[in-house]
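Lecture notes, unit on protein representations.

Consider one protein chain, 143 amino acids long.
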Amino acid sequence: MTAFIDPDRAQFDAFKALDRDHPVEMLNLVKFRAKAAYPGEHELAGAGLTGAQAYRNYGTDTAPIIARLGASILWRGAFQTTLIGPQDEVWDEVFIARYPTAHAFMEMVTDPDYQKAVIHRQAAVETSRLIRCAPTKGGETFG
């Protein structure tokens, strides 16, 4: 399985090229490493944390930033099985985060405190998917 931890330049440029003046909802699919992989110089490099523990550190450190920006977790679920799609993709965290605008998301990822916190996510994640969606009206049919 190919590891996807951070966006590549083309993906980030495509994200930035979209309208930033409306709410965005980010579908997050995350698979943790068995053992967190902190850089050797990081204070937690030898702590023996699991990926799940490192990801909790990421959540703790980013919570005040997310609150300040007006973002929230809209939905969280426990992965059970894939009905359509690659059977080897198993997710430890599945959630949708809502940001009031894409500007808020950009503010988050460029915030100096976020830049310090994201090391926990990078240490924790074996692979992930982060899918930007525009909220639309719900309904009673699929179409």
